Amino acid sequence: MKKLILILSFLTLNLTFSQSTTKLSVIESAEYKDKVKSTDILAIHTSNEGLTGIVRSSKKHILFDVFNTSLEKVFSHVVDSHKKERYVGDLFYGDEIKFFTVYTPKHNIREVNCHVFNLKTKSYKKVKVFEVTVAKSKFLFPSKDNRQTSFAISPDGNYIAISTDNIKKNINSYTIRLLKASNLEIVFQKSYQEHKERFLEPNDLSVDDNGTVFALGKLFIKGKKQKKKGDANYEFVLNKVTKDSNDELKVSLDEEHIKSLTISNVDNKLHLLGFYSEKNVSRIKGGCNFIIDKENFSVTSKRTYQLPTEVYEDLYGYRKANKKKKKELSSFYIDYVISDTNGNTYILAEEFYITQQYVSTGMNGGYWTTTYHYDDILILKFNAQGELDWGRSIFKRATSPSYNAFLKNDELHVVLNSGKNLTEKKDGRTKASKGWFESSALYDFVYSSNGDVSYDKIQNNKGKTFYLPYYGTFSNNKFIMMSSARKKKQFMILE
Question: Could you give the CA distance from residue 374 to residue 355 in angstroms, rounded to a whole number?
């Protein structure tokens, strides 16, 4: 996500304060030109001291940049990368970005490396973490959409957990490695969930300050296909892995179908949060929460909640809400799980699907076009007791990842680009999308602690810099996002 010329001061002429209705202050940096062309942002993080680090990739390089509190670029480092090396995840704590890649020197060799980039000292080093031999064409990590389920760092930053899978030829096998974050040395390595026939789909990974690793996954009973009707063909399994033990806890389902669960830590308990359906995993009837006692390692509570009426009113209007409530939503994927200091947890998911259309060119035949849809947003808030507090949704249409979310002063902010003016429907809905001939605008949807929403415009984009909320980072009560330009870059700060 860039050579900035910016001094963060009210006296400088290089700063522009955007005219807006947002409650947050809006600051834009001066424009700068990037020496290396790259639009692929792989990681962006801001330290407690206000240093922002960005990791990007180009065709043959990995690029590391550091920006100071005024968002001036103060350091840049370019590393050669191999075409057989791919990014698999990143972690951030203190001043360091740990950027993990897998290199395949031979068809059956996988080398996991960690690029350690310190924002404060501006130092860089590459560490070979481990190397394994795998069956041909096997992958150590899940697909790119689920790669962050394989890495976790303890709250105190002392331990890193890495989960890998499918490294044996005729058996499903999964391995946990616990590392010291300071030197990346392996504390222990332990296999779990070895089965000849049963396949595990990783869901989430967590490690505490004692070095205890919790690995959550969906274990299929037969094969690895989700049944569209009838009983679920899987069960959720939570493994508690230490140097001396490996305990397994099965999280039983009744008649629910659950696509995936994510881990939230609240008061020494694990909350396994997600969405459930009564039909199949691609649909949503409501939210669910399995509460796990970490010490006794047992399920202490299981709760399901139907989606509140407000969710359907936001999507379909008050006239159709009750009728639509009898049906289930579909094709939503969890993007963000955000917890506040009071133990509340917010889950945000976006509707995603793909369509294809055949375009005829006459005598010469035709071609297929593929459209990616990033549409409605679903928001649920669970309180510290694990109960569903409220639910809302955003009625929108987009063809690329378009939003980001953060908590500030007990309010949830959802930042996204939409049409210049939000469409107010007669049925009470507010539609966030851009018309064919309409210019766009950057908005901040602000949800209070009780779920009330205000629609605050940050700026009209016409004639101004277009920013990408999706590639943003929130730290020290500031949200930083960068522009979409390929060469000339700019930042916006919301605080």
Answer: 11
